[in-house]
């Protein structure tokens, strides 16, 4: 399960879901794996405004990953400045397809999309319920008395 | 293992969940063709939309890696594992009535061929509500009737996305009672709560291969002639009659934006009131 998914998950227990302490879930005993994938710049740009930055930073710290910057990058931060292509003489605007990901974009891609929790638990900060992650798939089925 | 506590839960565990877990791989091999209404709904979502696929099965709607990103879930671990191969989307194991997707965040949701597996009217309405609650709230600034899930519960971030005022939209799809031209032949007046067999082939499936009908039929591949060694599973279904899905949506606090009938199924697109 890629870390981006944690941005869109909370506790499955109904009474807990509305408690702000249930977000984000906290990885525990996590075995991480890097699953390489191509950088998708439009995707990163789209997802950027949806990220709960402080919470994601917290998760990275808990997992012992390199620290994310204090403030989220802007969409412009994700694009490599094109000054290094002096040969182009025509003034045509750079098409979106030609944009290259910046180091910031690559770092974000590595954390959100390539860093995966393969085994471990996700723990609710409000009720402390633990959800197991096995073979990269998190299981949110609740025991009967909690439904 | 979940430990069901109510008769309805126990019933669904025995007559829905266990069956899908057992037939997952065969079921998945027969589920490959998307329904046109669902595909159109997905393709009309703005680029960058965030979606939830509730009851994603083998992930047949997670194949498209174009312009949206989805968090899918299924009650069956085996199906969720199959579905999780659809990068870049994410898939988890979860129950429709206890979803870990945060409320008020998603631009869209699909719930295809799921709600008809719940065995009481109250649970079906509750399931619709669980799906609708995931959606971004309609944000007409004057509206005072929004619920406790608004901005305070989901701080600024994920809700901020796409700019339309109607909030998120959900597409719900259920099996219809009225399908007299299907090979099942059910129609108006028939019992709505039925058990539908699934024959798990133990031997080679030679006759099935070239025989699949177009249109992603609900039951293609199952209930062909039973041979020795085959195992029959019965799944519970509540067949929806005309107007019933719309009524469930309204009882769940939703507004029906569009609805219709497609190939033995009723569908509706809804948002929160
Ligand atoms: Zn909790």
Automatic annotation (TrEMBL), chain A:
<dbReference type="GO" id="GO:0046982">
    <property type="term" value="F:protein heterodimerization activity"/>
</dbReference>
<protein>
    <submittedName>
        <fullName>Trm112p-domain-containing protein</fullName>
    </submittedName>
</protein>
<dbReference type="GO" id="GO:0070476">
    <property type="term" value="P:rRNA (guanine-N7)-methylation"/>
</dbReference>
<dbReference type="Pfam" id="PF03966">
    <property type="entry name" value="Trm112p"/>
</dbReference>
<feature type="compositionally biased region" description="Low complexity">
    <location>
        <begin position="85"/>
        <end position="95"/>
    </location>
</feature>
<dbReference type="GO" id="GO:0030488">
    <property type="term" value="P:tRNA methylation"/>
</dbReference>
<feature type="region of interest" description="Disordered">
    <location>
        <begin position="69"/>
        <end position="103"/>
    </location>
</feature>
<dbReference type="InterPro" id="IPR039127">
    <property type="entry name" value="Trm112"/>
</dbReference>
<comment type="similarity">
    <text>Belongs to the TRM112 family.</text>
</comment>
<dbReference type="InterPro" id="IPR005651">
    <property type="entry name" value="Trm112-like"/>
</dbReference>
Automatic annotation (TrEMBL), chain B:
<dbReference type="InterPro" id="IPR051422">
    <property type="entry name" value="AlkB_tRNA_MeTrf/Diox"/>
</dbReference>
<feature type="region of interest" description="Disordered">
    <location>
        <begin position="138"/>
        <end position="164"/>
    </location>
</feature>
<dbReference type="InterPro" id="IPR029063">
    <property type="entry name" value="SAM-dependent_MTases_sf"/>
</dbReference>
<dbReference type="GO" id="GO:0002098">
    <property type="term" value="P:tRNA wobble uridine modification"/>
</dbReference>
<feature type="compositionally biased region" description="Basic residues">
    <location>
        <begin position="205"/>
        <end position="214"/>
    </location>
</feature>
<dbReference type="GO" id="GO:0005737">
    <property type="term" value="C:cytoplasm"/>
</dbReference>
<dbReference type="GO" id="GO:0106335">
    <property type="term" value="F:tRNA (5-carboxymethyluridine(34)-5-O)-methyltransferase activity"/>
</dbReference>
<protein>
    <submittedName>
        <fullName>S-adenosyl-L-methionine-dependent methyltransferase</fullName>
    </submittedName>
</protein>
<feature type="domain" description="Methyltransferase type 11">
    <location>
        <begin position="53"/>
        <end position="130"/>
    </location>
</feature>
<dbReference type="GO" id="GO:0005634">
    <property type="term" value="C:nucleus"/>
</dbReference>
<feature type="region of interest" description="Disordered">
    <location>
        <begin position="205"/>
        <end position="225"/>
    </location>
</feature>
<dbReference type="GO" id="GO:0030488">
    <property type="term" value="P:tRNA methylation"/>
</dbReference>
<dbReference type="InterPro" id="IPR013216">
    <property type="entry name" value="Methyltransf_11"/>
</dbReference>
<dbReference type="GO" id="GO:0008757">
    <property type="term" value="F:S-adenosylmethionine-dependent methyltransferase activity"/>
</dbReference>
<dbReference type="Pfam" id="PF08241">
    <property type="entry name" value="Methyltransf_11"/>
</dbReference>
<dbReference type="GO" id="GO:0000049">
    <property type="term" value="F:tRNA binding"/>
</dbReference>
<feature type="compositionally biased region" description="Low complexity">
    <location>
        <begin position="140"/>
        <end position="156"/>
    </location>
</feature>
<keyword id="KW-0489">Methyltransferase</keyword>
<keyword id="KW-0808">Transferase</keyword>
């Amino acid at each position: 399960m890629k870390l981006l998914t944690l941005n869109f998950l909370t506790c499955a227990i109904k009474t807990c879901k509305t408690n702000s302490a249930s977000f984000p879930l906290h990885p525990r005993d996590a075995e991480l794996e890097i699953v390489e994938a191509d950088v998708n710049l439009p995707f990163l740009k789209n997802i950027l405004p949806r990220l709960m930055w402080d919470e994601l930073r917290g998760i990275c710290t808990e997992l012992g990953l390199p620290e994310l910057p204090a403030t989220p990058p802007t969409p412009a931060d994700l694009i490599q400045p094109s000054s290094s292509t002096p040969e182009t003489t025509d003034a045509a605007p750079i098409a979106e397809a030609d944009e290259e990901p910046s180091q910031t974009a690559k770092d974000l891609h590595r954390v959100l999309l390539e860093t995966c929790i393969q085994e471990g638990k996700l723990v609710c900060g409000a009720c402390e319920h633990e959800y197991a992650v096995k073979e990269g798939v998190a299981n949110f089925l609740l025991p009967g008395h909690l439904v | 293992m979940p430990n069901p506590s109510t008769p309805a839960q126990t019933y669904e565990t025995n007559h829905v969940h266990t069956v899908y877990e057992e037939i997952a791989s065969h079921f998945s091999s027969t589920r490959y063709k998307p329904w046109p209404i669902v595909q159109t709904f997905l393709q009309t979502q703005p680029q960058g939309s965030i979606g939830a696929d509730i009851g994603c099965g083998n992930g047949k709607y997670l194949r498209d890696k174009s312009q949206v990103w989805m968090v899918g879930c299924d009650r069956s671990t085996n199906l969720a594992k199959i579905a999780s191969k659809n990068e870049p989307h994410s898939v988890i194991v979860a129950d429709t009535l206890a979803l870990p997707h945060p409320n008020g965040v998603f631009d869209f949701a699909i719930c295809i061929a799921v709600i008809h597996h719940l065995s009481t009217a109250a649970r079906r309405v509750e399931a619709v509500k669980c799906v609708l609650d995931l959606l971004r709230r309609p944000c007409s600034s004057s509206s005072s009737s929004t619920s406790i899930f608004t901005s305070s519960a989901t701080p600024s971030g994920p809700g901020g996305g796409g700019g339309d005022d109607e909030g998120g939209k959900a597409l719900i799809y259920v099996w219809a009672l009225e399908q007299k031209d299907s090979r099942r032949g059910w129609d108006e007046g028939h019992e709505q709560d039925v058990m539908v067999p699934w024959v798990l082939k133990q031997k080679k499936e030679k006759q099935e291969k070239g025989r699949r009908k177009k249109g992603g039929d609900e039951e293609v591949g199952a209930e062909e002639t039973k041979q020795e060694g085959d195992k029959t599973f019965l799944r519970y279904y509540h067949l929806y009659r005309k107007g019933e899905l719309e009524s469930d949506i309204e009882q769940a606090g939703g507004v029906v934006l569009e609805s219709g009938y497609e190939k033995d199924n009723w569908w509706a697109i809804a948002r929160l009131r």
